[in-house]
Write a structure and sequence with these properties.
Helix content is 57%, strand content 15%. The strands form three sheets. It has a seven-stranded antiparallel sheet.
């Protein structure tokens, strides 16, 4: 059992991700080493082959030079002997032979044969022709060669002289004659094979053998190795110039070098075994491989250390993804990444669904002046996927629908090229708010006209009001108040035409300089922080406004500026209790100075006593329980919910966004829609009854909302659910 457990641990170890990770390094290194060693081997083979071939050609050329130099010397000696032979002076001939033989440098024995004679002259006297005994040559053939008219070479073989012990000699025969005269005889030189041994030896030990041939017959041959006589003629070919070639003989490959001679019709050959050549290459390669393997061991240790260091982040990542639940870290990472991608897709889907709500919230905060700087506004715009980087903008208000509801997407789709609108539904005011950006004012006006003429707006019979065109984003609240003032003019101008703030008379639009002075006094009092002084300056401002001849728009503009200054100077957050009495949209509903004054004094009083760093307690659970209990009430509104908990609608939205990542309206819609789905699955009640039960008064609006939420109409959903295809 212990052995089995150990074997199991070993198998698990080698199946671990780290071992596979390390083995990948080892395999890559071994592959590189294999490539290097393979290249080194073939490079060594090629280099040694070329070096050996070139060297042997040079050595064979040297052997040829020495051999032919010796033959030339003997031919010259024969010419000197022919002078004495032609003169018929035997004494001079013998003396010349003796003189030539004394050196012993060029030959071992020399003889002179005169035609018609039966004997050979030598330095030692005369002896019969038959006294020269050749192992492979009979006396008749020898005599025929002595009478020949041209030079001859007799292959190296054992030769006995006058019955002495045979020795291996190479025989040269040169005719004795001058010019075109008929030769009178022949000079015969015996050269010991030992003289040629240095020419035939294998100096480098590479398995080389050299041959000297005449007419395909071997004249001289080295002793390194010998080729069978039946192979040699087919392997050695006449060479007109130096050439190399390879022949396979008896299952082995040989390199042949053929080199023609210039004397006596001799040819010179070198034969080398390729096995011997490549053995030298293998020896060099083995040495190189041994050196490489010596460096492999420390490299392997270094590789293990590096692998551990490089694998550590993978191990940590795998542990984070799988909490150590999987042995395979890479699979754990893969599973973790797959899970993250799935969650990311879910988040993207949620973000996509929440994009209209985020855009609406951004538009509302923008017109409220919630963003301190242009950079902050741009950052918020990017999160809402709204492009505000344009030269100018205007605010548009579409009034309360009559009959069919207005789809914001349809309004945005009407925008011409160069116009970039963003929409928000003002539930409390039952208005559609559009903030329209462009690079110049012309397209904005064209867009407003297109809205009034569109079938969507005409079918809903809603008025369209538009502010002046502004360039500074900080003027967004002002633009909203302008649009509100233009919207209020519908009671005079009618709602069948475009209501533009430009159409309001200039005096009604302007704020007197005296009012600006009172506003500045209030700002300075706020900076001082003295409650008495603040209230005093407020009294002076209100007293002046009651006697000033200004439009309601100008009043609202002044009060909005003061309230914004209060928020800026006191650092009040959006959820501050003092702000529950103020909202730009609520300010636009004020119809008198008294109403405006009440809101302003409450904001200032709350700002004086409130600590801006206090954190309000979370209300999300209470808010959710209240919505769960009352969502089926048709009279349920966000404003009513905020009033029950004594908070502002802004605070209400922030609580839901922070804890549920959705707006209160989205949460209310989800409660109603999920109740609707249960009723559709479990009952056969009419759609209109279900519509009333879940808090909707208008059936068409209810169907539209359900289709946006569930992707199908109530009838389609019920058909699928009762058929078994819907959610349970």
């Amino acid at each position: 059992m212990a052995v089995e457990a150990m074997l199991k641990r070993i198998r698990m170890y080698f199946r671990s991700t780290f071992v596979r990770y390390m083995l990948s390094y080892v395999l890559i290194m071994m592959l590189l080493m294999g490539c290097v060693m393979g290249y080194a081997y073939f490079y060594c083979r090629k280099t040694i082959y070329q070096t050996t071939e070139t060297g042997e050609i040079n050595r064979l050329a040297s052997a040829r030079y020495q051999s032919e130099r010796l033959a030339g010397t003997l031919e010259n000696l024969a010419a000197r002997l022919s002078v004495s032979a032609q003169a018929g002076d035997e004494t001079a001939l013998s003396r010349a032979l003796a003189t030539a033989g004394e050196t012993g440098e060029w030959f071992d024995r020399a003889f002179v044969y005169l035609r018609g004679a039966a004997e050979l002259d030598s330095a030692d006297g005369r002896l019969p022709v038959r006294a020269l005994g050749y192992e492979n040559l009979d006396a008749e053939t020898l005599e025929a060669l002595l009478r020949a008219d041209d030079a001859q070479v007799i292959a190296c073989q054992p030769v006995s002289v006058n019955g002495a012990e045979p020795a291996r000699y190479l025989t040269y025969l040169f005719p004795l004659g001058a010019g075109d005269a008929k030769p009178v005889g022949c000079a015969l030189f015996l050269l010991s094979e030992e003289r040629f041994r240095p020419l035939l030896e294998d100096e480098v030990g590479g398995g080389c053998n050299r041959y000297v041939l005449k007419d395909g017959e071997t004249v001289l041959a080295g002793e390194t190795f010998s080729l069978s006589e039946r192979y040699l003629p087919g392997a050695l070919r006449e060479a007109e110039e130096t050439e190399t070639y390879v022949r396979r003989i008896a299952g082995r490959d040989y390199l042949f070098i053929a080199m023609p001679g210039s004397r006596l019709g001799l040819s010179y050959y070198s034969v080398m075994s390729l096995n011997g050549i490549y053995a030298a290459a293998a020896t060099g390669w083995v040495s190189f491989a041994a050196i490489l393997l010596i460096f492999f061991v420390p490299s392997l240790i270094f590789m293990i250390v590096i692998s551990r260091r490089n694998y550590l982040p993978i191990r940590e990542m795998g542990a984070q993804f799988a909490a150590g639940a999987q042995d395979d870290d890479l699979r754990a990472i893969q599973a973790g990444i797959h899970d993250l991608l799935g969650r990311n897709r879910d988040l993207d889907s949620q973000l996509a669904r929440s994009l209209p709500a985020r855009r609406a919230l951004f538009v509302q905060n923008l017109v409220r002046g919630r963003y301190v700087s242009a950079e902050e506004a741009r950052a918020a715009a990017r999160t809402a996927d709204v492009d505000i980087d344009h030269a100018c903008f205007a605010v548009m208000l579409l009034g309360e629908p009559r009959g069919a509801s207005v789809d914001p997407a349809k309004l945005i789709a009407l925008a011409p090229a160069g116009v970039f609108p963003a929409a928000a539904e003002l539930i409390a005011h039952e208005q559609m708010l559009l903030v329209v950006f462009a690079d110049n004012s012309g397209p904005i006006h064209d867009y407003a006209v297109a809205l009034t003429r569109s079938e969507t707006v005409r079918a809903s019979r809603v008025p369209v009001a538009v502010s002046d065109v502004h360039a500074d984003v900080s003027k967004m609240p002002t633009a909203y108040l302008e649009a509100t003032s233009a919207y209020e003019s519908r009671f005079v101008m009618g709602d069948s035409r475009l209501l533009s703030f430009r159409d309001i008379s200039l005096p009604a639009r302007s704020v007197p300089p005296q009012a600006r002075a009172y506003v500045d006094d209030v700002k300075r009092a706020l900076e001082g922080g003295d409650a008495g002084e603040i209230n005093g300056k407020l009294d002076e401002l209100v007293t002046y406004l009651r006697t000033a001849d200004m439009s309601l728009y100008a009043f609202r503009q002044i009060y909005n500026e003061v309230i914004v200054d209060v928020m800026s100077l006191c650092g009040l957050p959006d959820g501050s209790d003092s702000l529950k009495y103020y909202d730009l949209f609520s300010l636009s509903d004020c119809r008198s100075i008294d109403e405006l004054d009440t809101i302003l004094r409450r904001v200032c009083a709350g700002a004086i006593r409130e600590n801006p760093r206090e954190q309000a307690r979370p209300l999300i659970h209470d808010l959710m329980n209240d919505m769960l209990a009352n969502y089926a009430d048709p009279a349920f509104t966000m404003a009513g919910l905020a009033d029950r908990f004594n908070i502002s609608t802004t605070r209400l939205t922030v609580e839901f966004k922070e804890h549920l990542n959705m707006t209160p309206s989205d949460y209310l819609t989800s409660l109603r829609m999920e109740h609707t789905k249960r009723l559709l699955r479990q009952t056969d009640r009419p759609i209109k009854d279900i519509c009333a039960e879940v808090g909707y008064g208008d059936v068409s609006s209810f169907i539209r909302r359900f289709k946006q939420y569930a992707g199908a109409t109530p009838a389609q959903y019920r058909q699928g659910a009762q058929g078994g295809d819907a959610e349970t």
